[in-house]
Amino acid sequence: MRETGEGPAAGRREPAPLRLLFGRLRPHWRTLALGGVLSLLGAAAGLAMPLMAKYVVDALGAERPATGPLAALSAVAVLGAGASAGAAYLMGRTGEDIVLGARRRLVGRVLRLGVPAVDRLTPGDLLTRVTSDTTLLRTALTTSVVESAAGVCTLVGAIAFMAALDGVLLCVTLLVIGVVAGVSALLMPRIQRAQRRAQEAVGEMGSALDRALQAFRTVKASGAEERETGVVAEAAARARDRGVTVAGWTALTGASVLMAVQLAFLSVLAVGGTRVASGALEVSSLIAFLLYLFSLVSPLGQLVEGWAAVQQGLVAVGRVHEIEALPGEPAGTAPTPGPGPVGIRFDDVAFRYGDDRGPAHDGVTFEVPPRGMTALVGPSGAGKSTVFALLERFYDHQSGTIAVDGRDIRDWPLAELRASLGYVEQDAPVLAGTLRDNLLFAAPRATPDELRHAVARTGLDELVARLPEGLDTPVGHRGTALSGGERQRVAIARALLRKPRLLLLDEVTSHLDAVSEQRLRDVVLELAAETTVLVIAHRLSTVVRADRIVVMEAGRVRAVGGHEELVGSDDLYRELAATQLAADRSGAP
Ligand SMILES: Nc1ncnc2c1ncn2[C@@H]1O[C@H](COP(=O)(O)OP(=O)(O)OP(=O)(O)O)[C@@H](O)[C@H]1O
To answer: ipTM for the complex?
Structure first.
């Protein structure tokens, strides 16, 4: 089966943002419905109160005992408050569940993205989307949706009661509120636009901070703290300005609601006063009507706030969806690699990193039989690391054939292919955690014996003995407690524990002490006796011992052979051997 690396969203039509947003509510509909019912009960209690107040006023006016209506009023108030609190709790809980679900999906997606997709993204922006944008979904999807629904019900209920009290006054009220609703609707797209810009600025801030932290030592050594602080602070200020714009539009919308109610109050007071004077309306009805009018403030406010939060949610769900829709790699658990070393063959392979880039490989052809050590050499930019990237299928080549173990690389299930390879980067990263975590990272099921063996083989036993807690010593953020050479030995031990059928090793360029260097070289040679080793060589000591050397230049293979043979036959190799490779005298044999 060919794995194309296409994401599940590839080729699909983009769903509308509102559908995307509300689609996230579906799994929680039961809790939301219960919250909605409780919220409605709370709202109903609020609605009943003005009418009950009218009974209390009527009872007092008619000099009847008011204890009954007063007790009922208190009971309704307590029940209403309880229902509203229950609704708020359920909404809050569902909100957290929605955020958790969105974060889980997003994180799962991010780590399954293809390397080309991640090349185009900045880690800081990705982090913002996982942390900040998902948080925005919470309010948009729970409190605001349910409160808006409750707001609509309260509004309809209040209007029904108002209609029962006096139709003329209702018409006055609706006219004023209608005008204001129109104004609010005009403001909503502005809120959404400002919110999008605000979230983008938060993403920019994350990216700026990430850039500075990634190159923390360089920033310090370059005395660039002030400048970098300025860049991050500028992005933060942009986020603040755009946030203020959102706040401004939202406040204006809220103010227009209040104004509408005030205007309606004055109009109702004027029209209602004359109707009371003419005897067309009772005073108690006017009081109840006015109470209903004021009870509109809260649902109208809820509606405006809810709708503004939905605008924010639309922005957030759009940004989250952008990542979810990126092409991802097929999921699959890594099987244990098959037995024995594998051979590889590159046949007229062409590859470019992007349409606007020149070819990184321009007809690369070479073959590596199983077992033994093959060294890739060539000037910087020749395409050596690209050989590794294509073998790991971080990228797909555009033409030609790459075969691993005689099988086209595209026919390998990705997880199986990667399980067969051990990959040691030049600047081998060490993850924050203990030394043990790091060693077992690629093979969590390795036995303690296998771990001990790998540690001894890579000469890490001295380091383990020196560290205060041995294997359980935390090696800190990006392995700050380890030297460059130690980091690479950890990476080799990690790759060894995976029992790779093909080891891809990008040699460190920095100087190691002679003893460590010799030891590492011996380990790699020993390994080459049992597995296939492909090494990007930066040292003469490596190439002279290699079974074959592949000389690359400008995306092509220009010669293949042994050291002596190439020194005699290939000008570029002779030059490399005399300068670049031999420069590292400490590692020379
Ligand atoms: N992720 C990438 N995106 C775009 N272009 C890239 C990427 N990686 C490498 N390239 C380009 O592809 C070409 C080959 O790069 P590659 O890293 O394979 O060379 P190399 O021989 O390993 O060089 P070096 O010895 O300096 O590491 C170069 O021109 C490089 O600029």
So the answer is: 0.96
